[in-house]
Design a protein that fits this description.
The chain has helices at 7-23, 26-42, 49-61, 72-87, 94-121, 125-138, 145-158, 162-175. The protein is mainly α. Helix 3 (49-61) runs antiparallel to helix 4 and helix 7 (145-158) runs antiparallel to helix 8.
Length: 190
């Protein structure tokens, strides 16, 4: 604090941020993110910029809520990882960021599924169709795409859109011939 712009002051700021990050409690992660952002704002041309951006993203990613909760931190984490790849494409942290992006995108997709399935269960097939269609378009690499297709087919079925339901179930059969969701397709759509 005496010489915050000195080399030792810069290193100390990063060490404080790293310590808070390693503590791992939610409040520690929030403070760690703030310290990393402080470093980023005070030393924008630092050679440690890629590491700081990676740690900001990781601080956000470790605060991700369950799929049935608000996904604001998830969206921020995705943006932070994408910023790392955009700003520092040759960073040694780039490959880890790509892996994290896959996990974060899957959580966002799972959130869309949970909301869509909620609408399906509570008799709002139009809203379910909108959510599930968006999920399938926006997250084509979703790890549980088969269950999303099944839920979309069920939503169309409940909305009395037999042709669309059949198309969704056919796509499920074609893309996932071994899926456990095939046996849950209603008899009239088999």
């Amino acid at each position: 604090e005496v010489e915050p712009n000195s080399a030792a002051g810069r290193e100390a700021l990063l060490l404080v941020a790293d310590t808070l990050f390693l503590e791992g409690a939610e409040t520690d992660l929030i403070q760690a993110e703030a310290k990393y952002r402080d470093f980023q704002n005070r030393f924008p041309t630092s050679e440690r910029g890629d590491y700081v951006q990676f740690q900001i993203a990781r601080s956000l990613a470790r605060r991700i809520e369950r799929a049935d909760r608000d996904q604001a931190s998830t969206a921020k984490a995705l943006q932070a990882f994408e910023d790392l790849l955009r700003l520092y494409p040759t960073s040694p942290h780039a490959e880890a960021a790509r892996t994290e992006i896959t996990v974060v995108r899957d959580r966002l997709a799972e959130h869309e599924y949970v909301v869509g399935y909620f609408y399906l269960r509570y008799g709002l097939p139009g809203a379910a169709i909108a959510r599930l269609s968006t999920l399938l378009e926006r997250y084509p690499d979703f790890g549980e795409r088969d269950k999303a297709l099944w839920a979309l087919g069920m939503s169309y079925s409940k909305a009395k859109k037999a042709d669309d339901a059949q198309a969704a179930f056919t796509k499920l059969r074609d893309e996932f011939p071994q899926s456990r969701w095939l046996e849950k397709i209603p008899e009239e759509n088999r």
